[in-house]
């Protein structure tokens, strides 16, 4: 597995933000990079939720009958993370994108 400083890791890192702002829809390379960045961000949120859930499981097991008192902060954090733990894809954002003035949108 490459380290975060390796050239292989940096080559795969997205160079565009995870949205379609400023993306020319006729430039397929930039469009694909934006799509990949959106999917990557969604997967990061899912994995963060998974990590919180694993910590919550450990807390429930460790605290036993006192888990309602001791694991409340993790439980609330997990409930907040659950709202964003869905892989929605990029097509909804791409097809319903409203370009700002001076930007090109989908054909």
Describe the protein's architecture and organization.
This protein is mainly alpha-helical. It has five helices and no strands. Helix 2 packs antiparallel against helix 4 (72-82). The longest helix is centred in the middle third of the chain and has 36 residues, at 28-63. The model has no long low-confidence stretch (mean pLDDT 81).
SSE inventory with pairings:
Blueprint lengths: L6 H6 L15 H36 L3 H4 L1 H11 L8 H5 L12
Fraction in beta strands: under 5%
Please trace the helix and strand order, writing H or E for each element. Answer: HHHHH
Largest sheet: none
Mean pLDDT: 81
Q: Can you tag this structure with a few keywords?
A:
107 residues; mainly alpha; 5 helices; elongated
Concise synopsis of the structure shown:
The protein is mainly α and 107 residues long. 58% of the residues lie in helices and 0% in strands. The model has no long low-confidence stretch (mean pLDDT 81).
């Amino acid at each position: 597995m490459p380290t975060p400083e390796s050239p292989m890791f940096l080559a795969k890192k997205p160079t565009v933000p995870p949205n379609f702002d400023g993306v020319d829809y006729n430039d397929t390379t930039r469009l694909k990079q934006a799509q990949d960045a959106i999917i990557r961000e969604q997967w990061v949120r899912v994995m963060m939720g998974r990590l919180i859930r694993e910590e919550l499981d450990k807390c429930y097991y460790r605290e036993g009958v006192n888990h309602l008192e001791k694991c409340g902060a993790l439980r609330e954090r997990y409930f907040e993370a659950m709202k964003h733990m869905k892989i929605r894809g990029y097509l909804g954002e791409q097809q319903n994108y409203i370009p700002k003035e001076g930007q090109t949108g989908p054909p």
